[in-house]
Specification:
With about 240 residues, this protein is α/β, with parallel strands linked by helices. The chain has a single domain, classed as Rossmann fold (3-Layer(aba) Sandwich), CATH 3.40.50. It is built from seven helices and eight strands; from the N terminus they run βαβαβαβαβααβαββ. An eight-stranded mixed β-sheet has the order 3-2-1-4-5-6-7-8, sandwiched between helices.
Length: about 240
């Protein structure tokens, strides 16, 4: 088993995920870039390798159990453990549709943003338990906060896509439950809010750069033994649930 740390970032072929991969690899960590398209994943990994980083694409569609199982098997046989899992892959299908949104849109959103995280984490957990001090980071959003959504004066109070926000709220609960289940292990599980970041997800409308958007997740992925678990953080600190 290699002493070098190994990270898997899902949905890492672009956006915040690719930048999280770049920042982790810049710390000397070997990074696997999960991508549902190997072509897009390989292009991103190639870009990072051209910067001298140890980055490799791995096929992983978080809604396709076969690719999840194959990825776990590959990581097991090639590395024997997984130190860091960043559940970054996510979609935002609804805009301000409110209750007019189709039920199918909510189901599709949950397939990726919630069930995908569960399926990937469940498959990778035996490998994370083999690492010295596993770290699991779930890419949430400030839009998943019940407290912030309930505050009419919150800066993003007007942004309430029901599928996306409820999926991130469910992901927050999953974070709390995973952390609780793993509290007697060395594994830490936290949710990261990247802030409103310019990516394809929002047609590049966010004011933050991907460098800024990746910061909280990278910090949580590399926490020391005395770092928190079961929390929800942006780059400034705690986000209210
Ligand atoms: N941007 C923001 O302002 C913001 C704010 C809060 C939270 N977030 C969260 O941050 C995360 C990254 O978002 P982003 O802004 O970087 O979005 P993005 O640029 O659209 O990137 C999303 C990534 O997820 C991948 N993906 C989507 N469905 C997938 C699936 N079924 N299996 C595997 N990969 C899949 C995409 O792959 P393809 O290229 O194949 O589509 C892409 O690599 C998401 O969880 C998002 O909800 C973003």
């Amino acid at each position: 088993m290699s002493s070098r740390k190994l990270a898997l970032v899902t949905g890492a072929n672009k956006g915040i995920g690719k930048e999280i991969a770049r920042q982790l690899a810049s710390q000397g960590i070997t990074v696997l870039l999960g991508a549902r398209s190997m072509e897009r994943g390989e292009a991103a990994a190639c870009e990072l390798r051209s910067m001298g980083l140890d980055a490799h694409a791995i096929e992983l569609d978080v809604t396709n159990q076969q690719t999840i199982d194959d990825a776990a098997l590959k990581i097991s046989s090639e590395y024997g453990k997984l130190d860091i899992l960043v559940n970054n892959a996510g979609i935002a299908l609804d805009r301000g549709d409110g209750m007019a949104v189709e039920l199918e849109t909510i189901k599709k959103t949950f397939d990726t943003n919630v069930f995908g995280v569960f399926a990937v984490t469940k498959a990778m957990l035996p490998l994370i338990l083999k690492a010295e001090a596993g770290r699991i980071v779930n890419l949430s959003s400030g839009l998943g906060s019940l407290t912030q959504n309930s505050d009419p004066n919150w800066g993003f109070a007007g942004i309430k896509p029901i599928a996306y926000n409820t999926s991130k709220a469910a992901l927050n609960m999953m974070t709390v439950i995973m952390a609780s289940e793993l509290k007697d292990t060395a594994i830490k599980v936290n949710a990261a809010d990247p802030g409103y970041t310019a990516t394809d997800l929002n047609q590049h409308s966010g004011p933050r750069t991907v460098e800024q958007g990746a910061t909280a997740a990278v910090h949580l992925a590399t926490l020391d033994a005395d770092g928190p678990t079961g929390g929800y953080f942006d780059e400034d600190g705690v986000v209210p649930w």
